[in-house]
Amino acid sequence: MDLKAALTLAIPAFVALMGLLAKYLNDLKIAQRKDRLDRISRQLKEFYGPLFALAHASEIAWYGFRSKYRPDAQSYWRSEPPPNEEEAAAWRLWMSEVFMPLNIQMERRIVENADLLEDTVAYKRLFADNFTGLSNCRNHSKMARKALCESTTTRATACGWFRRYTARVPANNLL
């Protein structure tokens, strides 16, 4: 077999192998892109979307509550004069029936979908720090929960921590 015949067979075989390699690399890139888009879709559908909706509902409820009770006070508990008995009772009712259930739903969403968080310690710690008080509150008896709600000096809805979280994270890292 001469050189010309060998090249005639080798060149098409080499081109075919290069084509297979190019196809493999292209398929790999497409699969990685699809996996990334699937993860982003899952994050939005199962985590960030519902979490945002719960935080938004919590914020709407908070503004509704504050428009009815102590609308001119800067802080619910720290402003003068302090809340009267009716306002304190309203706080306990809204806290136990509206805000805590929303907070618990958000906590559950985070715990059940922690795999959708970015893989950094800072993100996970931020969520853990913000729900320590919620978990402690939920584990107390009903009387202790009432006492905790009465002594709370800041808004206890989760929309505050969600806004702080999203403000610290660049928009491209939310996905």
Structure description:
The protein has 175 residues and is mostly helical. The chain has one domain. Helices cover 76% and strands 0% of the residues. The longest helix has 66 residues. It is rod-shaped. The C terminus is likely disordered.
Short description:
By secondary structure, the protein is mainly alpha-helical. The chain has helices at residues 3-68, 85-112, 121-139, 142-151, 159-168. The chain is 76% helix and 0% strand.
How would you spell out the order of helices and strands? Answer: HHHHH
Percent range of helical residues: over 70%
Number of helices: 5
Quaternary structure classification = single chain
Gap between N and C termini: 60 Å
Strand content: under 5%
Task: Assign an overall shape.
Answer: rod-shaped
Number of domains: 1
Question: Total strand count, please?
Answer: 0
Specify the biggest β-sheet: none
The chain-level mean pLDDT equals 78
| Secondary structural class | mainly alpha
Query: Uncertain segments of ≥5 residues (pLDDT<50)?
Result: 140-175
Q: Mind telling me the C-alpha Rg?
A: 28 Å
